[in-house]
Amino acid sequence: MDILKLANVSKIYGSVKALYEATMSVAEGEWLAIMGPSGSGKTTMMNIIGCMDRPTSGNVLLDGMDISNLSASELTHIRRDKIGLIFQQFHLISYLTALENVMVAQYYHSMTDEHEAMQALARVGLEDRAKHLPRQLSGGEQQRVCIARALINYPKLILADEPTGNLDEANEGIVIDVFKRLHGEGSSIIVVTHDPEVAEVADRTIFLEHGRISKIVLNR
Amino acid sequence: MTNRRMYFKMIASSILRRKSRMTVALLAVAIGATVLLGLSAISYDIPRQMGREFRNYGANMIFVPADDNAKLEILAAKRAAEAIPADSLIGMTPYRYETARINMRGYDIVGVDFGQARKTSPFWRIEGKYPEAENEVLLGADIADFTQLAPGAEVNMTGLAADGSRYRSDMKISGIVRTGGVEDGFIFLRLDDLERLAGNPGTADIVELSAAAGADQLNALVSRIAGDVQGITPKLVRRVTHSETTALSKLRALILLVSAVVLALTMICVATTMMTVVMERRREIGLKKALGADNGGIAMEFIGEGILLGAGGGALGSVLGYFMSEAVSVNVFGRSVTMPWYFPVLAILASVAVTAIACLPPVRRATQVEPALVLRGE
Fold first, then answer.
1. Residue B280: CB partners within 8 Å, gap ≥ 6?
2. Which residues of A touch B372 (CB under 8 A)?
3. Does ipTM exceed 0.85?
4. Where are the alpha helices (DSSP H) in chain A?
5. Is the pLDDT assigned to residue B232 strictly greater than 90?
6. B376:A104 CB<8 A
7. Which of these, A12, A93, A168, A191, has the minimum number of CB atoms within 10 Å of its CB?
């Protein structure tokens, strides 16, 4: 079963076709990488898949629901329930501890649960750093907190925007290992990346150019 | 940690992280609350404070005989005056008017209780001194000018007593009274002297009263006395009460205007600070929205910060406002200020309301932040 399906999805700003007639699908449990140069439409596609924008035309089905024409408020609810977001710049709240940063996602989803948040940190190997503030963590550790936050509400789809873009090689390896483990546990993952080594570990890679899907490569 | 604790942790941490900026906003709210509470307390207390000051301008109520009575009984007037609270009644002066000849010329003479007259007519300017001993008189300034009599001079006074006999007495001029009013054309003597000479004791033509009360209270007293006491018609001295009411209304309007201006400035300061905070926190707001916060949740966080700011500033302002009103009251009126216990509570609530309202434009701006900006690496 497909967790995500895009059918002829376009996003047009005036005369600029940021994304044009994109058609693709992601199966449940699949790991998909999206690659492309700057301005190729990666961010536009991420915004649409992540329920942060609506397409100008075409249909987007997330977990069987057509989200193409939902209101901003409805998209917020879908995003909260079904999407786990991981960012290049981590975007942790500086005045909250690692544990509280994970709990923020619970807070906006439903109810905070400290025990469950601690378990999420344990999944990414950070249970002993739970009480540390972001500035007391390394880049790799911050990204792992970001991953724990993305996982805490059991999302249907994990959406990662350049998750290793700000990391050194050692931390990049650690983060990729976390993704591999999540994939092994059956999580559906979409990773936008510039890094071919990160893309290679995904099941499939989609290449975008000038707003169009130019190539799809099966990695295994 | 519960959701509620998480909420308070987020808003408190957010305020503490921006100490200098929030201190400015807090001081703005505190100044607003100081002025609001201070001026409200003064405004509330002004009728009491100014009422005493206004009493320097003379009596504000008079008792006159009922239509069919030529004279009124002083004892009846005293009973009627009991309707006025003792702490509000500043003075009550009976006046008895007669005619007499002094040095062979006819004048209006007035029997007065000078002890009370000093309270009800403190504006009298006396050259010499008030009559204290028997057979002393106070000459009106016009009469003194006309007759060229000065304090210390002696005059011969003759008149007709109530029983029809004539009386004659040598009187000493103790002083000259100058008011610029009708008093300048009268000769005043002690009421008991007049009663001794002319008879018919315990009566007066008019009784002047000075009460520290507002126009509404005085009107209520007049109605009550008119209904309860026979033989006396109470009246307001409208020239005085109207002047008081007008002056108080203008003063209160001025206080209201100043308060409104200060509150508006407070709102502008808070709104500007919060707008800056929103702009600084765009990325954080975008992140929270990306994590699933809806506009209501974001609005509640900023309004929560505003309410904390308002409550803190309001509490600080209430303390400062009390000292401000006390300082103004002591320095201007020479008396301590009194205010109801709930005034500081209202000042805090008003500060919270003002701050919450001031937060609305920044909150609107915050809800317009797009969650997508966190994906663009901004």
1. B18
2. 43, 47, 50, 52-53
3. yes
4. 42-49, 72-82, 98-109, 114-123, 139-151, 169-184, 196-200
5. no
6. no
7. A168
Burial of A69 (0-12, 13-18, 19+ CB in 10 A): exposed
Q: Does B368 touch chain A (CB under 8 A)?
A: no
pLDDT digits (tens, 9 = 90+) for B83-116: 888 888 889 999 999 999 988 889 999 999 999 9
CATH of residue A132's domain is 3.40.50.300
CB contact under 8 Å between B3 and A111, yes or no, is: yes
CB B312 within 8 A of CB B26: yes
CB atoms within 10 A of CB B305: 24
Domain holding A203, by residue range, is: 2-218
Over the stretch B176-198, which tens digit does the pLDDT of each residue have? Answer: 999 988 899 999 999 999 999 99
**Token pair in block for residue A23:** 């058609």
Split into its structural domains, chain A has a count of: 1
In 3D space, the residue among B53, B197, B35, B28 whose CA is nearest the CA of residue B111 turns out to be B197
- Residue B96 is predicted with a pLDDT of 94
Of B56 and B371, the structure prediction assigns the larger pLDDT to B371
Q: Rounded to 5 degrees, what angle do the CA atoms B127, B129, B135 make?
A: 120
Please provide the DSSP assignment of B259-308 as one string.
HHHHHHHHHHHHHHHHHHHHHHTHHHHHHHHHTT--HHHHHHHHHHHHHH
Q: Are A158 and A188 in contact (CB under 8 A)?
A: yes
The residue among B117, B18, B109 whose CA lies nearest residue B59 is: B117
- How far are the Cα atoms of A117, B154, B235, B283, B289 from residue A111, in angstroms, in the given order? 11, 100, 72, 24, 17
Enumerate the residues of chain B whose CB falls inside 8 A of the CB of residue A80: 291-292
